[in-house]
Sequence to fold (224 residues):
Amino acid sequence: QKEVEQDPGPLSVPEGAIVSLNCTYSNSAFQYFMWYRQYSRKGPELLMYTYSSGNKEDGRFTAQVDKSSKYISLFIRDSQPSDSATYLCAMSASGGYQKVTFGTGTKLQVIP
Amino acid sequence: DTAVSQTPKYLVTQMGNDKSIKCEQNLGHDTMYWYKQDSKKFLKIMFSYNNKELIINETVPNRFSPKSPDKAHLNLHINSLELGDSAVYFCASGHSGSETQYFGPGTRLLVL
Fold:
């Protein structure tokens, strides 16, 4: 069993839909949770960062962490064609330069 | 203005050859990373350097040897290339006190 599980998709939604992307994990030591967005043939870029449990909102994006269930989510409201990309969850046990473990990514396509 | 740059962007080579990939960051970060992303988009850390010192060394064949001449550079040398080394290799950098990592554009390696 991988430490971080993520549905690879692809997930196809119409423009304007609410998108829900999820990851589960097994390592209870994880405290730092990130979402990266990766466009085709580009490097990942950090989208959201959350420490411990709770919600964080940034524009159309909301990240949720439920440590009791070992489950994290990224919600995208009013999805746009420009949101079409692969979304990677990532997490680490402690701050700084400790190892970050990535999910396999979910490919999202937003259809105009 | 490129934050994290990698050269070359593409590398096509024969089995058994030795090749190097170079990475440079101009963000003033003290930590740099090498990741391998396979065809299924799984991003796995290989090495991490903090202030030129190796701090993360995952289970990677010793054919792979990283070198950090200074804080702004991290190179990856691969000896005796194998078919299974074909992947996209990403360099990333960050501050030692932060989980945020900034990725380069990737080097697409194809071993024939």
Notes: DSSP finds no helices and eleven strands in chain A. Chain A has a mean pLDDT of 92. The first strand of chain A starts at residue 4 and ends at 6.
